[in-house]
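Bit of a strange request maybe. I'm writing a small parser for structure token strings and I need a real example to test against, not something I typed by hand. Could someone generate the tokens for this chain?
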Amino acid sequence: SYTSYSPPPPSSPDLSKIPDLAGTVTYALEGICLVLPVEASMSDPASSQKVIATSLISYSILVGAYASTAVASGLGSCDVITECLPGVAGDAVKVALSVALAMGHCVTLFPAVELLEGVFFDSGKGAGGSGGGVGGVVEG
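Reply from user aminoacidic:
Good idea to test on real output. This should exercise your parser:
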């Protein structure tokens, strides 16, 4: 006997989850802009790849251990782990994450500030020139 396949009808997206998505994505991608300040402040910027790789591996191990523990103890049923944290401790963690995100925005502007400093204060040696630029690497 022959059975035909009919796809399920399209469903409308749950728009109430968009703020959760935006917060999660913003918090997750915030660290990308921290690479340049870390590299610029290092005494040996050439070793920045080793430092960043070691940091990412260490962070991955930490998050993996935490996630495994959370799932094993039954906290894996939430979309975002902070939704499962109970009581005052959970509220404190949410507030701390919000403050960290708000304070981190100053650091994420670092690349733009570096470029503007190079353009306006380096006497014509702006971004990409020999006097600085993004990452604080001084050539020459």
